[in-house]
Structures are given as C-alpha cells and as structure tokens.
Design brief:
It is built from three helices and five strands, in the order βαααββββ. The protein is an alpha+beta fold.
Length: 140
C-alpha cells in the first residue's frame, strides 16, 4: 500500500469527531481508567476541572485514527507522539463535545515516509494536543 502523494506544507483534509459522555463510559470500560473525573460532574468540579473531561489517551487515539484513515492502513502509522495541553470538556447532553483534527505535511523522506504535524482543536477553539507528530511509511 502506498501513502497518498503529498509535499511538504500540504494540508490534510480535516475531520470533526464528536465525543459524548457515552463514549467516555465505553472508553473507561475498555481501558480500565475508571477515574470519576471522566464521568462524574461533581468529582470533576471538586478537583478544579470545569466539568467532566475526556481521557487524554482517548483524544490521542482519535487523532491517531484520523492519521491511520488518511494513510489508508493502520500499519502505516509507524509512530505517534504528543503532549496533552488542554482537556476536552464533555457536556452532559446528546451532542457532547466536538474535536477538530487536521494535519500538515512536515517532511517527506526519500523512502516515502511522511511526517505529519497533527492538530486537535477542542470546542472552545483551543488546541488540546501539543507537538503532535505522526510518521507514516508505506508498507513494503
């Protein structure tokens, strides 16, 4: 499988992903991270958060899925790194919070490996991931 043809500076079409409280409960069960800040409003506020927040690793996983979908194959994603800069607050309603993912091509190596600078913007318009980099290589 080959990666899409890109050049340094190209922007990857973005995607908006909704995150609901139900998603947080499913992720908590799958990951074993049952910290109540991810499902209980009172606990989240009591520890100084603005409300229930999405798991940072869930946000990272959604960003990695965005990259894997662009690459056309999850095996093409050779590495993904990021820092968590701001939580995604998820309201207790049917819509939840929306996270907007995008990426810009940062480098294209001679072997076809592509490095993407990935962005993730929360519902307040501020970035929720920092220094997010993904390296994708075509399968050989």
């Amino acid at each position: 499988m080959s990666l899409p043809e890109v050049a340094v500076g190209d922007e990857i079409p973005g995607r908006t992903v909704p995150v609901t409280r139900a998603d947080l409960v499913r992720y908590a069960g799958a990951s074993g991270d049952l910290n109540p800040i991810h499902w209980n409003e009172r606990t989240a506020v009591d520890v100084g958060l603005p409300g229930v927040i999405a798991h940072g690793m869930l946000t990272m996983a959604l960003a990695a899925q965005f990259v894997a979908d662009w690459a056309g194959d999850p095996a093409a994603v050779r590495s993904f790194s990021t820092r968590f800069t701001r939580p995604v607050v998820v309201p207790d309603d049917d819509e939840g919070a929306s996270v907007e993912f995008g990426a810009t091509v940062k480098a294209v190596d001679d072997d076809g490996t592509v490095t993407l600078a990935v962005t993730a913007t929360g519902p307040d318009g501020k970035g929720v991931l920092g220094k997010a980099l993904a390296r994708c290589a075509p399968r050989t």
